[in-house]
Amino acid sequence: MFGLPGYIYKYSARENMDTTRDNIESTSKSSTKFSCSDVGYEPNRFVNLGDFSEDLSCPICFGIFRQPITTNCRHVFCKNCINTWSMKSLTCPVDRRRLTKLCKPPILIENMLNKLLIKCDYEQFGCEEIIELPLLEQHIKCCHFKPKETYLLVQSCK
Questions:
Q1: Is residue 155 one of the residues assigned to a domain?
Q2: Which residues form the signal peptide (predicted)?
Q3: Which end of the chain is more exposed for a tag (fewer CB within 10 A), N or C?
Q4: Rounded Cα–Cα distance for residues 2 and 27 (Å)
Q5: pLDDT tens digits for 30-40?
């Protein structure tokens, strides 16, 4: 579940998210670190981004939206970016209005993202695939260029 710390979220019939204040102090005090797969996509990975780079960029990480979320003041952010931000501040990073609700992004944003073509995560290992963004996760699970996991064996001293 995503959202502002200390809030409980429920999907309504319109798929908006209603917020109700809750006394969850531990959530707002926890510090979360995200890997690069948790923030926006690097713009240079897209082959057809064109003039839409600024329109589809998160104002926090400056990457192309990953799991976009809209605030009550209608700004759009990556889900993990706004969640991390909201652990420190309950105001919008763009206009400083109080954050009270997180919603799905406008369908236009989703449609634009779904039409983007992105290079595989494993391009540096030789993969030349260019995939529609919604299919990227499926591709990287079975990509033949995915590095094999390596294990470090440590012998105990006796």
A1: no
A2: none
A3: C
A4: 11
A5: 344 445 567 99
Paired tokens of 151 = 């294990």
Percent of the chain whose predicted confidence (pLDDT) is above 70: 70
d(CA 76, CA 23): 27
**In the chain, how many domains are there?**
1
The CATH number that applies at residue 78 is 3.30.40.10
To the question of pTM greater than 0.90 for the whole model, the response is no
pLDDT in tens, 86-136: 999 999 999 999 999 999 999 999 999 999 999 999 999 999 999 999 999
What is the distance between the alpha carbons of residues 78 and 110, in angstroms, rounded to a whole number? 12
Nearest to 70 by CA among 109, 36, 35: 109
